[in-house]
Design goal:
Elements lengths: L3 H6 L4 E4 L2 E4 L1 H13 E3 H8 L6 H6 L5 E4 L5 E5 H7 L1
Antiparallel strand pairs: 1-2, 3-5, 4-5
Length: about 90
């Protein structure tokens, strides 16, 4: 699940070394720990079998909780246990 969105958000830093680009192992491990507890709106919508745009509505109604990560391009994540409870 290592996509450009995590780099753009600033959650994962890409280090430039001349012709090479590297991502620190601890950044990847941090992302894996985060995604063990939280899911993206796209993943939540797939788990619930609904359109992605409905997930923020569930949050506004208080049915699921979320956090925002990243500085430059924030990403909203939803608590996995809340999503699984709605299944």
């Amino acid at each position: 699940m290592l996509t450009a969105i995590w780099v753009r958000s600033g959650f994962i830093a890409v280090r430039q070394y001349s012709f090479w680009q590297r991502i620190a192992k601890q950044d990847v491990e941090k992302l894996e720990r985060l995604l063990a507890k939280y899911v993206t709106a796209t993943t939540a919508s797939r788990m619930l079998g609904m359109h992605r745009s409905h997930v923020p509505n569930l949050e506004r109604r208080g049915e699921i909780r979320s956090i925002t990560v990243g500085d430059n391009f924030p990403v909203r994540l939803y608590l996995r246990s809340d999503v699984e409870a709605l299944r």
